[in-house]
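Record type: ASSEMBLY
Status: queued
Input:
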Amino acid sequence: MTTPLPNLTCPLCGGDNQCAPANTGSFQVDCWCRTAPVPSDALARVPAEQRGLACLCPRCAGACEGAPRSTEN
Ligand SMILES: [Zn+2]
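Status: finished
Output:
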């Protein structure tokens, strides 16, 4: 039985990745990343040593989709 690693920060920006399994220590909970499509472009930017181990944050995961940025206008 594997348990989630407590990787609570985004490997790209260092922000909160809001990963539910990492927060609870159980894969029984659904993570937002199960339903949100993460572009392969974003995954490609994750350092190799953290790929598949740490979740991106929603902002970085959606950055390649042209999602509107609330901080820029
Ligand atoms: Zn991020």
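Annotation: Residues 1-64 form one domain.
Annotation: The radius of gyration is 12 Å.
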